[in-house]
UniProtKB/TrEMBL annotation:
<protein>
    <submittedName>
        <fullName>Nucleoside-diphosphate-sugar epimerase</fullName>
    </submittedName>
</protein>
<dbReference type="InterPro" id="IPR051783">
    <property type="entry name" value="NAD(P)-dependent_oxidoreduct"/>
</dbReference>
<dbReference type="GO" id="GO:0005737">
    <property type="term" value="C:cytoplasm"/>
</dbReference>
<dbReference type="InterPro" id="IPR001509">
    <property type="entry name" value="Epimerase_deHydtase"/>
</dbReference>
<dbReference type="GO" id="GO:0004029">
    <property type="term" value="F:aldehyde dehydrogenase (NAD+) activity"/>
</dbReference>
<dbReference type="InterPro" id="IPR036291">
    <property type="entry name" value="NAD(P)-bd_dom_sf"/>
</dbReference>
<feature type="domain" description="NAD-dependent epimerase/dehydratase">
    <location>
        <begin position="16"/>
        <end position="220"/>
    </location>
</feature>
<dbReference type="Pfam" id="PF01370">
    <property type="entry name" value="Epimerase"/>
</dbReference>
Length: 319
């Protein structure tokens, strides 16, 4: 086991301050690690034990500055949905070059996109990568390059895949700002596709715990892991959880095909159309390999839903 796994004084650098990066920075600080949280602006609410840092990690210079002195780097940076196919490969090039030069290990937050349509089969780490979408093929190509860099000894790299996020601070998700505000105010609540299909969602705190564990445990390097994810349930069952928590029925608007709704504008939905299969076939992600290897269980989904409602109550009440 490397020094990075045991030395709590080693710096951990988190690239990207979205919901996943912010939750991860908090989790790493809670575990006693010095943490640098990097985005373009370097501002935002103070987080205990976390240093905010401004850098553009899409450039070689910015990425090198962001990872300088870090033992472990977490790539949680993302870009606007319609720019991903163009920009994410450039992000990879800059970040990968920086960690190769610095000697840091790299933990990459990943998606289920490389698998493509599975016909509803349960997704494990052994599921073939058969994406036909532009974004799925792009993600698969990035992942192949990450794993090749590890095999070639250029850097220690591990990938943590997540299903669609849910949890406090998560806005741009099928269970985000298009659902919870309406649930709390009596407004419209988004439902996508077939609401009775089982669908996995990964709690944002489980994303953070999973990535932090991969950062501490280099014996997991060189492969893809599914981050701890609660058993899949239908969207209709999740809506029932929200109703129990809020004490009011939901006014659900079902989109059977992608069109603008709430925070999802026309530009986003046009890009999302190729991924809409995720709502017309079961999306079942199995994280048992991670759970058995690292001894971490996912948070029960109802607990995550409760915490999310509580967060949105405060979010809606903000000045």
């Amino acid at each position: 086991m490397s020094a990075a796994a045991t030395d709590s004084r080693a710096l951990h650098a988190v690239l990207g301050s979205g919901p996943a990066g912010t939750a991860l920075a908090r989790e790493l600080a809670r575990r006693g690690h010095p943490v640098r949280l990097v985005d373009r602006r370097g501002d935002g609410p103070a987080l205990a034990g976390v240093q905010r840092y401004a850098a553009d990690v899409g450039t070689a210079e910015g990425a090198r500055a962001a990872v300088a002195g870090a033992a472990v780097v977490y790539h949680c940076a993302n870009v606007a949905y319609h720019l991903q196919v163009e920009v994410m490969p450039r992000l990879q090039e800059a970040v990968l070059g920086a960690v190769e030069a610095s000697g840091a290990r790299l933990v990459v937050l990943d998606t289920l996109y490389p698998y493509g349509e599975t016909g509803g089969a349960v997704m494990t780490e052994d599921t073939p990568w058969r994406a036909t979408s532009r974004k799925g093929r792009m993600r698969a190509a990035l992942d192949e390059r990450y794993l090749a860099a590890h095999r070639e000894g250029r850097a220690g790299i591990v990938l943590g895949r997540s299903a669609d996020f849910v949890g406090p601070g998560v806005l741009n998700s099928s269970l985000g700002a298009a659902v919870f505000p309406g649930a709390l105010t009596g407004g419209e609540v988004l439902g996508l596709g077939d609401l009775d299909l089982p669908r996995s969602h990964t709690g944002i705190e489980d994303v953070a715990a999973g990535l932090a564990t991969l950062g501490e445990r280099p014996e997991g390097d060189g492969r893809v892991w599914h981050l701890p994810t609660a058993p899949a349930v239908s969207t209709r069952e999740i809506h029932a959880m929200i109703e129990r928590r809020t004490g009011r029925p939901l006014n659900v608007v079902v989109l059977e095909e992608p069109r603008p709704f709430g925070p999802f504008d026309e530009e986003f939905m046009a890009e999302y159309a190729e991924m809409f299969y995720q709502h017309t076939e079961p999306q079942i992600m199995d994280s048992s390999a991670f759970e058995q290897a690292f001894g971490i269980r996912p948070t029960p989904l109802e607990e995550t839903v409760d915490a999310t409602v509580t967060w949105y109550e405060k979010w809606l009440a903000r000045p």
